[in-house]
# Entry
Amino acid sequence: MQSSQIRDLNTVTLYEKLGGTAGIRRIVDGAIAAHLRNPVIRARFEPYEDRPDRVEEVKRHTCDFFAAGSGGPDRYRGRSMAEAHRGMNIDAAEYAAASGDILSTMKDLNYDGATRAEVHEILRALEADIVHK
# Structure
């Protein structure tokens, strides 16, 4: 193997660790399903159960945001997290429930602890833009 073919593990992006677009989609699909089962936040997602087009739109935006923010090849062109969640009055308990669903989904999908910790740090950084007391 040539030295140019050896990949330094320190250069692997979070996007790659997550499995690229397909891996991120699995996480998002699982997290949305978990949100619908979660009594703390279910009510926020129930109105969309009969609107698969809206659910798909939310998933697509979430995947795009997650991919761009984790080092993926594309740039995110949607609204900021603050803009997307403005007026929703999301409290800290709801945010913790949603974050927990994402991290639990990742664990169920066998992502390692270090990768989950990296995502957890991103979720913590986004909290101030989403939680409105």
